[in-house]
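Need tokens for this chain, all 87 residues.
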Amino acid sequence: MDLVGIIVWLVIGGVVGWLASLVMRTDAQQGILLNIVVGIVGAFIGGLIFSGGSINQGLSVYSFVVSLLGAIILLAIVNLVRRGSVR
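Here are the structure tokens for all 87 residues:
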């Protein structure tokens, strides 16, 4: 993976993580670094659940949505473990 690919990966991961945190109402608790981590891990989870199509395989609307859904699922699991409820 080249440097441009890594930068795009980080930017898209940050956007996906930020949008997922807005949906799950955890944005006030997260900074930019955690948003990037949530976006990248969410892309991986979404790729596993929806059999490919995450931002790791290339950028498209489908891959963006799959990554966003994976990040939302990740935040829901974290909320469930930390608070005992999804939200």
